[in-house]
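ARCHIVE CARD
Drawer: 12
Card no.: 0347
Subject: one protein chain, sequence and derived structure
Cross-reference: see card 0346
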Amino acid sequence: MDLDGGFNNGFLDIPWGAQLEDHLPLLSEKFGKEEAERKIDAKISSFSGLLTREAAAKLIAAEEGLLKERMLPISGITDGARDVNIRGKIKKIYPMQEYRTGKRSRSFILKDETGEVEVKLWNEEADSIYHYHLGDTLKISNGYIRNKILNIGYRGKVELEGREALLTPSNLHEGIISSKARVSSIGGRNGDEFLFSISDGEKEARVCITHIPERGERLAVGDVVLLEGAECDGERLFMGEHSRMLVKKNSPDIFRGELGDSEVGNEGARIRVGGEEFAVSPEQLVRFLKLEGLKKDIDLPAVARMKLTGLKGKWATVLFEAREGAKHAKDISLR
């Protein structure tokens, strides 16, 4: 039976391309030759004899973590290939596709230094793309190629290996980048472009949507935007055909931004998030920093200062209320 469930000469044959002699030394080294042969016989028996010795040895080696994945360059993939293992960065993400049958799929383009390939995920796996961003590095294991598209079957797996760095207006550089910041002003439609500015509380950057400028018309000052695959000249960002913009609408009592400097005392702390300052009570500080188990004789302000220093630069969400001319945090959590 092959991986699609069809019978092949009465034996369950896993087409991984390796022969018994490739794996028997691995098993013999770990268990001894006699024990390795016994394990192979037991594995074949557990499949009612419908398993070749090559496949049994391969299965045991895989279960014991003795196999090393062979990663292919994307340019080396051929149509009809199975058990494809590749690594690459996301270049483009397509919209979700829904079908009359109730099934749904979503595709994205994965690229490496040798080429690119379309990857298609189905149903529940398709929902996982919401957690990926342009520029993220993915590792795909045990995929198969059909009609030049890399599909993920029941044995396949997609793993996130690296996040694309999210820059702020204060540390932009030339190239294709991703940035997360708050909308600080709206310039509006200018011919075939839409202009607006983003800010991290310290510096502003101009953004120009050159492809589908209508995307900017839903923006409002205070919204948080994630700009993926933007072309940056060092100061301005241009959102073209291959870029993507995600918007989190502003709420008057929720603020999101990068953790900055903080001042901690016995009465609590004053923490800067995205350039805004929030008063944080000792109880909220303990919850935020997960210091509930801290012994009473330990200096809370000293421990809090140390932990806040380590968290500086991370993105935080603050639920707050404004009173007495200041913003008081009701809850604060990391992204």
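Annotation on reverse: The radius of gyration is 27 Å. The longest strand covers residues 175-190.
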